[in-house]
């Protein structure tokens, strides 16, 4: 496709066309080549990669199904063109930059999803039929025929919408912040590119020198006094020469370089904590920062994606038993110590078996490792009244075999 040709060989008009593509719905869609602002690029990259790296789990009646076909479809092989990671990455990146992204669900005769294929925003038009509560997706592939896709066969990812149909990009609210940030960067660039940046002046007290003579004196002076070998050495000048060291006024540069308002605004719009864009965050541990990132940022994106998957990929009555949910353990277990403490707590409280704990660290199961153990200090709540009466009368407890203090 023309959108992937080298920009170096294209005219300025062709470059602009590549950077802003007019979609069938009349909206302008931004390609990757247009992300020239480093903060916007970092925000999109951070969110897209973190969401793409998080497995989408399939829960059957609340229990994870790691061996299901839906799990492999979403996380490993959505189609024959790219992996599950990049499928999720391009969906999220397009939704962040353009407000929405699309993927076609290819099903078999029984309606089971077989493939998930990303569709370019500029080639899809979501149409709401007049006087009918129905949406159709018209797909116009480059070099192909128009196809009308049913809404249940199109994943339509969006994170902000006023009507539930058309998504809005965070970039639409960052026009002035990005412009002010780019103006500051241009000021720094122009300062060094166009400014007169001199290290010193050699003044000849007598005579008028030609251009050739000035060049010769400059070269000889630099040869004798500049470079690593001449550092901290004494300068020897002729009687008619005078050297003055110049200082560069960097006050303006300090103001520009220390101006972080635009960066904070970009982080705020994407819902990112400021430290994700390089702004130092004090008095916060890595664990606290990750939990804050998960709770206040990623959970909202996860919920939007999982809701669309549940709505489109799990028809009734399958949706009564199955649900999609992102695995967030890597954000909650930020280091080896936290993970170890969590595994030990689950093991000691009978939630994990020994083999479950071994599996968390990639070890093979052991014989009889599926048994679960609990402390004898816990007792069935229905037996508490009987235990208290027996203790008061110093009688044997009939249900002692079920656990409790009678077993100690």
Q: Domains counted in the coordinates: how many?
A: 2
Strand content: 5-15%
Q: Mean of the pLDDT scores?
A: 78
What is the CA-CA span between the terminal residues? 75 Å
Contiguous helical run count: 13
Largest sheet: 3 strands, antiparallel
N to C succession of SSEs? HEEHEEHHEEEEEEHEHEHHHEHHHH
Helix content: 25-40%
Q: Work out the number of β strands.
A: 13
Strand order of the largest sheet: 4-3-13
Decide which structural class fits the backbone.
Answer: alpha+beta
| Low-confidence blocks of residues | 1-22, 403-408
Our Rg estimate from Cα atoms comes to 33 Å
The shape, in one word, is extended
Give a description of the structure.
It is a single chain. By secondary structure, the protein is of the alpha+beta class. It folds into two domains: 1-196 and 250-334, no CATH class; 198-247, 2-Layer Sandwich (Arylsulfatase, C-terminal domain). It is built from 13 helices and 13 strands. It has helices at residues 12-19, 38-52, 69-75, 84-98, 175-194, 211-225, 251-257, 261-270, 286-313, 329-332, 336-348, 354-360, 384-393; strands at residues 20-22, 28-30, 56-60, 63-64, 101-107, 113-119, 124-128, 135-139, 147-149, 154-157, 200-204, 241-245, 322-326. The strands form five sheets. The chain has a three-stranded antiparallel beta sheet. A hairpin with a 2-residue loop joins strand 3 (56-60) and strand 4. The radius of gyration is 33 Å and the shape is extended.
């Amino acid at each position: 496709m023309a959108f992937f040709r080298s920009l170096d060989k294209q005219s300025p008009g062709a470059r602009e066309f590549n950077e802003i593509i007019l979609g069938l719905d009349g909206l302008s869609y931004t390609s990757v080549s247009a992300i020239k602002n480093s903060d916007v690029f970092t925000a999109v990259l951070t969110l897209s990669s973190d969401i793409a790296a998080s497995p989408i789990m399939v829960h059957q009646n609340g229990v994870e199904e790691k061996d299901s076909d839906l799990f492999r479809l979403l996380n490993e092989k959505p189609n024959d063109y790219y992996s599950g990671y990049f499928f999720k990455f391009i969906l999220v990146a397009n939704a962040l930059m353009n407000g929405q992204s699309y993927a076609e669900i290819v099903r078999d005769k029984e309606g089971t999803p077989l493939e998930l294929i990303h569709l370019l925003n500029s080639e899809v038009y979501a149409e709401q039929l007049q006087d009918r509560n129905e949406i159709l997706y018209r797909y116009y592939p480059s070099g192909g025929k128009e196809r009308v896709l049913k809404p249940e066969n199109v994943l339509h990812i969006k994170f902000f919408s006023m009507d539930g149909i058309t998504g809005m990009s965070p970039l639409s609210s960052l026009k002035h912040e990005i412009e002010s940030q780019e103006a500051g960067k241009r000021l720094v660039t122009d300062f060094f590119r166009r400014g007169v940046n001199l290290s010193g002046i050699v003044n000849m007290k007598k005579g008028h020198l030609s251009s050739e003579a000035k060049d010769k004196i400059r070269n000889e002076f630099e040869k004798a006094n500049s470079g690593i070998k001449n550092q901290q050495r004494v300068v020897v000048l002729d009687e008619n020469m005078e050297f003055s060291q110049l200082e560069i006024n960097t006050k303006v540069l300090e103001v520009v370089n220390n101006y972080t308002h635009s960066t904070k605004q970009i982080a705020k719009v994407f819902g990112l904590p400021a430290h994700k864009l390089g702004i130092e965050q004090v008095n916060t541990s890595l664990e606290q920062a990750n939990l804050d990132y998960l709770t206040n940022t990623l959970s909202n994106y996860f919920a939007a994606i999982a809701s669309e998957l549940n709505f489109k990929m799990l028809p009734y009555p399958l949706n009564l038993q199955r649900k999609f949910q992102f695995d967030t353990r890597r954000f909650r277990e930020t280091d080896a110590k936290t993970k170890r403490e969590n595994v030990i707590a689950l093991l000691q409280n009978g939630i994990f078996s020994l083999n479950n704990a071994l599996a968390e660290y990639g070890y093979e199961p052991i014989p009889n490792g599926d048994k679960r153990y609990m402390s004898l200090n816990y007792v069935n709540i229905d037996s508490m009244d009987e235990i208290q009466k027996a203790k008061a009368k110093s009688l044997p407890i009939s249900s002692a075999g079920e656990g409790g203090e009678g077993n100690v």
